[in-house]
Amino acid sequence: MIRIFDFILALLGLLVGSPVLLVFTVIGLLDTGSPIFRQVRVGRYQKPFTLVKFRTMSMGTVSVATHLASSASITPFGRFLRKSKLDELPQLWNVLKGDMSLVGPRPGLFNQEELTEERARRGVFEVRPGITGLAQVNAIDMSTPALLAETDQMMIQSLTLLSYFKYIFMTITGKGAGDRVR
């Protein structure tokens, strides 16, 4: 049932948001020269997939978890995108393709071994990763892997259609801070 809502909402989001996506792509071209960021992430069943989002950091920034990245590498437009969470909009494509859900555990990087181990132990990889979820609306980020995996597990065990829409609404209205940057 949730996959149906994912597909419909992602398709609507891409169609309705296409003018914004186009404008942000042009601004991103001027800001970094390459507006779309692609990165291999850990997906469902620990299979790799390529996540897409708007680039918020300078080209050539080392591929590490956001909380390990330097804030100096974030561009001015990137700060706006991160603060508004609009850098996540292209991930609607990942949702449409079935790599992700709108709601689920945020996909980590393969080099985040502690997080991957915690999530594997807790069965978190049995579901599609998501754009938002319980951890995100409570400002729990990847800098605390054990807490994040525990929160992801709690969300998966208690996810209902009502909470699915609640997390989406909370994210759209600005609840949660996103990943911390040092």
Question: Any chance you could write out the topology, listing elements then pairs?
Answer:
Blueprint: H1 2-32, E1 36-42, E2 48-54, H2 76-84, H3 91-97, E3 101-103, H4 113-121, E4 130-132, H5 134-137, H6 145-158, H7 161-172
Parallel strand pairs: 3-4
Antiparallel strand pairs: 1-2
Helix pairs in contact: 1-3, 4-6
The proportion of residues forming helix, as a percent range, comes to: 40-55%
**Oligomer status:** single chain
Structural class computed from helices and strand pairing: mainly alpha
Uncertain segments: none
Taking all Cα atoms into account, the compactness measure Rg is 15 Å
Mean pLDDT: 91
Number of helices: 7
Strands, total number? 4
Tags for this model:
two-stranded parallel ribbon, 7 helices, 4 strands, two-stranded antiparallel sheet, 182 residues
Description:
The chain has 182 residues and is mostly helical. The mean pLDDT is 91. It has helices spanning 2-32, 76-84, 91-97, 113-121, 134-137, 145-158, 161-172, and strands spanning 36-42, 48-54, 101-103, 130-132. The protein is built from seven helices and four strands, in the order αββααβαβααα. Helix 4 (113-121) runs parallel beside helix 6. Strand 1 (36-42) and strand 2 form a beta hairpin. The strands form two sheets. Strands 1-2 form a two-stranded antiparallel sheet. A two-stranded parallel ribbon has the order 3-4. The protein has one domain (2-172). The longest helix is centred in the first third of the chain and has 31 residues, at 2-32.
